[in-house]
């Protein structure tokens, strides 16, 4: 589904990713772990098209297309979704209007007819119930005044509604209490199927107790230094990244 | 071949032009040419002599290059814009903007000054509207026509809200105003439609020194829209307009403006219109209402403070403004709310958006007279900055002369960030849609005060203007 080859990325003169190579197939769940500043979020943002990063080298194929030459919205239309670590506040625009617009943009790209206000609202309410969100949430401005947990829940709600095929979730678990974590994990699990793929970026084993990854990678100083199965995450939890860095 | 045609055309106009510059003789000649009654000549002369004594205001947060008033021609015969024969002669940039604003083709032709089919001629369109208005008793005509037909009303009201010596630019306008609009709504009449300069016949060029007077008699209602979202080009650099509104008992006037004058070259700051406007409304009667709604998106320099004098008890004034500056534009705009009557109310809602190297200033005065007991004002003033090279300033002045009145002021400054844009784009919105959405959120409270179709157009206009400034 996505093939990242020797990706080198810089921001403001500092090289952050130093040659990342990673292939993710349909139906797979990958977890990317690593210490602060290793470049995990950078990888996620570059894949989603954040214009503040500069790709110096390497390539990314998404469904066989050159992902890096596409605008962020084109990547979204192709089925890529980034759950932000720090979701952005946008005053004056309701969640509902925003999501309705975003979904219809994607549908237009897919050649589908737009959803009416009523159709969309039904879809929104269904997913909000699943995420255990209050109905008044729809009318509130995008992320404005939301708690950390509400923002993360909102990201998963957006994911559920936009129904992407490949999701990058950037520390979606941070800032969540245990109940919220269960709800979010359930949301992610119900999204996942054999046609889709998931890359979870996380510091902790905790989320991985609820969403079991097929592969775990460790990113240190902009490079994947080790890859393995779910057991790698457990040993990281035990021994820390330090041991790995020395290895 | 084409060039020769042009020259021939221009010569025709030139024969009707006065020598450039201003003096008493020019003012007399102007009044005589327009066959004006004696009171108007006197009005102009008085204004001219006051103007000579006045200084151009220098208190605004504007850098105004020196203006040579003797190099301006103060009268030329009613100009007929030169018509282009075909659409493909129009500046392609202009056409692109029209298209994206969603302006219909025939309307594009009219705005771009391309000859239009007789059926779509705005004159015939205007005539139909005139008929409907006439049946309702509403008067909408050019100032020139009003001088002919409604001299008594002019004598009574012209200069009654903005005195001829009010300020330098108002005095200049009073001395040499060329034309403008006149609106009269009789007692008890609700205007059956939005009035717009667009439908005003006999006056296709607004001119440099425009004068507008709107009188709403008791229990009447009118909504007036000035300007349009399409870019306006004009070779005159200085514009000094005066607008006066009078609302009698329980009358309501809504005045909306979309200003999109040429703002000069966004890269060099060369050229562009200097817009010095005096707009003021008098809520003369009890429970009368005046609201100013403006979207200021053009002009190199804007100096403009649409104001309300709340004279009648329980009268209500409002000012809703979006001012966008980019390139090297400078805007110093705001309002004055003068509370004189008891239990008067005013609302000020201001949104400033600045980008590039521009400067955007809000300047406001809320004055509550000692006699205006129980009065209230609410002011909200929000600025949005795009990148770091622009500047935004606010200068609110509040004077409260009694203890039973309430004044509230709120202000905020925010930035449209690359982060916000990326977030929206990552959800599948194009950059243009993303900017539009952020602006929609920011300006919503002001734009909802406008007639719906203009609000939609104005929103698109703001997004198009900012496209090159963001990201």
Give a short overview.
Chain A has 247 residues and is α/β, with parallel strands linked by helices. Chain A is built from 8 helices and 12 strands. The relative contact order of chain A is 0.18.
Description:
- The complex is a heterodimer of chains A (247) and B (471).
- Chain A is of the alpha/beta class.
- Helix content of chain A is 39%, strand content 28%.
- Chain A has a single domain (2-246), classed as P-loop containing nucleotide triphosphate hydrolases (Rossmann fold).
- In chain A, a hairpin with a 2-residue loop joins strand 4 and strand 5.
- The mean pLDDT of chain A is 91.
- Helix content of chain B is 29%, strand content 30%.
- Chain B has helices at residues 2-14, 24-33, 38-53, 92-101, 105-111, 122-136, 143-149, 151-157, 168-176, 418-426, 431-447, 452-466, and strands at 139-142, 179-185, 195-196, 210-216, 221-227, 238-247, 252-259, 274-283, 289-296, 301-304, 307-310, 316-325, 330-339, 345-354, 359-368, 376-385, 391-400, 406-415.
- In chain B, strands 1, 2, 4, 6, 8, 10, 11, 13, 15 and 17 form a ten-stranded mixed β-sheet that branches. Chain B has an eight-stranded parallel β-sheet with strand order 3-5-7-9-12-14-16-18, covered by helices on one side.
- In chain B, helix 2 (24-33) runs antiparallel to helix 3, helix 10 (418-426) crosses helix 11 and helix 11 (431-447) crosses helix 12 (452-466).
- Chain B is globular, with a radius of gyration of 22 Å.
- Residues 1-15, 115-125 and 199-206 of chain B have low confidence and may be disordered.
- The A-B interface holds A 48-52, 71-73, 75-77, 81-82, 84, 87-88, 90-93, 98-99, 101-103, 105-106, 109, 141, 158, 162 and B 414, 417-420, 422-431, 433, 437-438, 440-444, 471.
């Amino acid at each position: 589904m996505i093939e990242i080859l020797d990706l080198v990325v810089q921001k403001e003169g500092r090289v952050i990713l130093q040659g990342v190579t990673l292939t993710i197939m349909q139906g797979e769940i990958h977890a990317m772990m690593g210490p602060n500043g290793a470049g995990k979020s950078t990888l996620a943002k570059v894949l989603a098209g954040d214009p503040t990063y500069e790709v110096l080298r390497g390539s990314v194929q998404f469904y066989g297309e050159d992902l890096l030459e596409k605008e962020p919205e084109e990547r979204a239309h192709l089925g890529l979704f980034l759950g932000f670590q720090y979701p952005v506040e946008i005053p004056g625009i309701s969640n509902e209007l925003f999501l309705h617009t975003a979904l219809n943009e994607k549908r237009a790209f897919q050649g589908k007819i737009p959803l009416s206000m009523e159709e969309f609202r039904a879809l929104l309410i269904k997913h909000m119930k699943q995420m255990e969100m209050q109905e008044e949430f729809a009318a509130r401005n995008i992320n404005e005044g939301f708690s950390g947990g509400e923002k993360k829940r909102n990201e998963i709600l957006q994911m559920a509604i936009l129904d992407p095929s490949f999701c990058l979730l950037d520390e979606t678990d941070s800032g969540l209490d245990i109940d919220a974590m269960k709800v979010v994990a359930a949301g992610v699990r119900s999204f996942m199927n054999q046609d889709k793929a998931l890359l979870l970026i996380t510091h902790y084993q905790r989320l991985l107790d609820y969403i079991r990854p097929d592969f775990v990678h460790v990113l240190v100083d902009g490079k994947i230094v080790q890859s393995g199965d779910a057991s790698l995450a457990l040993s990281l939890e035990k021994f820390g990244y330090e041991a790995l860095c020395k290895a | 071949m084409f060039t020769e045609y042009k020259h021939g055309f221009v010569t025709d106009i030139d024969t009707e032009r006065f020598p450039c510059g201003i003096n008493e003789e020019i003012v007399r000649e102007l009044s005589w040419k327009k066959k004006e009654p004696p009171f108007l000549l006197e009005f102009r002369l008085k204004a001219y002599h006051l103007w000579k004594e006045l200084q151009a205001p220098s208190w605004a947060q504007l850098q105004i290059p020196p203006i040579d008033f003797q190099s301006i021609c103060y009268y030329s015969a009613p100009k007929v814009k030169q018509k282009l024969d075909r659409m493909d002669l129009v500046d392609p940039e202009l056409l692109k903007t029209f298209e994206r604003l969603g302006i219909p083709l025939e309307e594009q032709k009219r705005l771009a000054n391309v000859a239009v089919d007789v059926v779509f001629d705005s004159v015939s369109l205007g005539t139909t509207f005139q008929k409907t208005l006439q049946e309702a008793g509403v008067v909408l005509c050019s100032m020139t026509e009003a001088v002919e037909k409604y001299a008594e009303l002019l004598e009574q009201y012209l200069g009654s809200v903005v005195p001829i010596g009010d300020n330098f630019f108002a005095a200049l306008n009073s001395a040499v105003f060329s034309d403008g609009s006149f609106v009269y709504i009789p007692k008890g009449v609700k205007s059956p439609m939005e009035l717009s300069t667009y439908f005003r016949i006999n006056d296709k060029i607004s001119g440099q020194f425009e004068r507008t007077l709107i009188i709403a008699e008791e229990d009447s209602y009118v909504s007036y829209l000035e300007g349009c979202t399409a870019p306006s080009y004009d070779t005159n650099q200085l514009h000094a307009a005066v607008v006066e509104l009078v609302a009698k008992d329980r009358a309501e006037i809504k005045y909306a403006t979309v200003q999109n004058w040429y703002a000069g070259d966004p890269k060099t700051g060369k050229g562009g219109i200097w817009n010095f406007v005096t707009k003021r409304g008098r809520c003369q009667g009890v429970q009368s209402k005046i609201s100013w709604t403006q979207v200021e998106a053009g002009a190199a320099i804007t100096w403009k403070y649409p104001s309300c004098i709340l004279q009648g008890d329980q009268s209500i004034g409002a000012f809703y403004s979006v001012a966008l500056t980019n390139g090297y534009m400078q805007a110093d705009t705001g309002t004055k709310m003068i509370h004189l009557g008891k239990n008067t109310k005013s609302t000020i809602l201001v949104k400033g958006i600045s980008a590039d190297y521009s400067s955007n200033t809000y300047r406001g005065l809320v004055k509550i007279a000692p006699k205006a007991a129980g009065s209230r004002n609410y002011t909200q003033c929000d600025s949005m900055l795009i990148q770091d090279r622009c500047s935004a300033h606010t200068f609110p002045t509040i004077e409260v002369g009694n203890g039973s009145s309430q004044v509230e002021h709120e202000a905020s400054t925010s930035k449209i960030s690359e982060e916000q844009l990326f977030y929206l784009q990552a959800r599948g919105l194009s950059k243009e849609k993303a900017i539009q959405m952020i602006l929609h959120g920011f300006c919503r409270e002001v734009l909802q005060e406008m007639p719906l179709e203009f609000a939609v157009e104005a929103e698109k206009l703001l997004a198009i203007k900012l496209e090159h400034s963001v990201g």
